[in-house]
Design a protein that fits this description.
The complex is a heterodimer of chains A (92) and B (126). Chain A contains two helices and five strands; from the N terminus they run E-E-H-E-H-E-E. By secondary structure, chain A is mostly beta strands. In chain A, strands 4-3-2-1-5 form a five-stranded antiparallel sheet. Chain A is globular, with a radius of gyration of 14 Å. In chain B, helix 3 packs across helix 5. Classes of the chains: A mainly beta (92), B mainly alpha (126). Chains A and B meet through loops of A and helix 1 and helix 3 of B.
Chain lengths: 92, 126
């Protein structure tokens, strides 16, 4: 896992479905977008949710094209942004 | 995303993870919260400020309560259940302490008016 994806980097959300508390929306898993900005390190919610010591991980705002998420989107070039932790992202 | 993608997703996603699907209109009516609901909200915020548990812990318990709780309980019914679960798990109070306190509070009556009258009576008898 790279420490930092620079803004503009194309990234793909990991397509994994483990049980447990996860903040990465299921409908974005497997989707590819572009890092809009780096929001900084934040405690891993997958640890905090169980009241465990949480390592800080980079959090990214990732921008997706609606046409890349939904077939037949009315406005395919409109975009959607979501905040996703580093361990859910891979270079596209 | 194609129809078969959505089918795969429906198999894999957890019940609460409903983003990305179709939705009805957004209700824009105002909410009128009861005093106890405001207290539950304040307690959750206080627990975060004091470092007892985070919003992630709140959400984790809400998710684990399952879809039936989402249908059957109100928003703050679910919050108070999650608040309690987190406070038990963090050892903030014990089950026995909770039970004793619930009996004490129940003895005050079922309304705020009854509780106030009970407290007045105790003061008068003291």
């Amino acid at each position: 896992m790279p420490d930092t994806f620079a803004p503009g980097t194309r990234v793909t959300v990991r397509s994994a479905f483990p049980p447990g508390h996860i903040r990465t929306p299921a409908y974005l898993r497997g989707a590819t977008g572009e890092v809009e900005r780096v929001l900084g390190p934040f405690g891993n919610p997958e640890r905090l949710a169980y009241n465990l010591p949480a390592e800080k991980l980079p959090l990214y705002r990732v921008r997706f094209r609606l046409g890349d998420l939904f077939d037949g989107a009315d406005r395919p070039d409109d975009t959607l942004e979501a905040e996703i932790f580093a361990h859910w992202l891979e270079p596209a | 995303m194609t129809a078969s993608d959505w089918h795969d997703l429906a198999q894999n996603r957890r019940w609460h993870d409903m983003g990305g699907g179709t939705a009805g209109p957004v209700p824009d009516d105002e909410h009128d919260f009861a005093l106890w609901e405001k207290r539950v909200d304040a307690l959750v915020i206080l627990c975060g400020l004091k470092g007892i548990f985070t919003v992630d812990g709140l959400r984790r318990v809400l998710e684990d309560m399952g879809e039936a709780a989402f249908e059957d309980l109100t928003y703050y019914d679910r919050w108070v259940a999650s608040l309690n679960q987190n406070l038990l798990e963090t050892g903030t109070y014990s089950v026995a302490e909770l039970g004793a306190k619930m009996e004490e509070v129940a003895a005050r009556g079922t309304t705020y008016g009854e509780a106030a009258a009970t407290q007045d009576g105790e003061t008068a008898n003291a």
